[in-house]
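Journal club prep — side note

Before the paper discussion, L.F. wants everyone to see what a predicted structure for a comparable chain looks like in token form. Sequence:
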Amino acid sequence: MTVRKAWVVAGAAVGAGLSFVMLLVVGVYTVAGNVAGGVSGGAKTLAKGAVPAAYQTLVQKWGNLCSAINPALLAAQLYQESGFNPDARSPAAAQGIAQFIPGTWATHGIDGDGDGDRDVWDPNDAIPSAAQYDCTLASYVKDVPGNLTENMLASYNAGSYAVIKYGGVPPYKETQNYVKTITTLEESFAAPVSRVDPSKQAAGAIYYAQKKLGTPYLWGGTGTAAQGGRFDCSGLTQAAYETVGIKLPRVANDQYNAGPHPSRAELLPGDLVFFSDDLTNSRAIRHVGIYVGGGYMIDAPRTGAVIRFDAIDTPDYFGATRVTEDGAKALPTTV
């Protein structure tokens, strides 16, 4: 959500025996144009580490198969379907990283890696097949009015006949929600090419986190009374944003997909900042905090520590997410 405001961050204090840079968001004012680095034109490339390294090349290549899709859109579909899990199975018998049901796979599965077989459990076949299937659906509805990508996604959910019948995305709530979900998630998987606008809820999330400074860490903690109001890292960020009406997923690597990804130079207070031992794979993220400015975050670091201010510029810094309400709503409840 666009907000013509910027953050004013100030203040410093010294704790007894411990020195912290205490940064307080005291207001929200006009943001000067803050343009993200990235590709020019309308092309979309994948955000840093958003797709596991094992699938990065496949998604980038096959995501450009036709004009109806792009790598970020294909990544969003794979994340929505399986969380990039090649062994995923659903109660509806959908299989693999792209969650093909057997009948659809029999018709649309292709030998993506040219090894002589079509294996729904092999991402080298399943990812190209997902892209090919998208493009096939797009060809069915290419003459339908409206946005080709949205019509393709609607065909994926409701069938191309329904899209043709209604002259666009059909008036089915499930289908309309599916189209919005994937196009919103697409923004999380794409490298930004313009300013990433600040979230108006960010100041409230920081305010909540500041009130928890000094609270002992608890693995699995979400701040319940039974847990003594204690948190782990993602429990704290989830609770902070829930106070301003944004429901984040429980774990840090899913919270990474709750909005677009500003660069280090573009960070604003309220952005979530993430840390990982594998800087090529967002699914390996193991820690998250709330950025407060000046190179510091509020986080719940580990067992034996308390919620505190920590520096973000460490070798395991992975990246950041500017949380949006739509981005959070688009995330699957389970992946």
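L.F.'s comment for the group: DSSP finds eleven helices and nine strands in the chain. Keep this in mind when we get to the figures.
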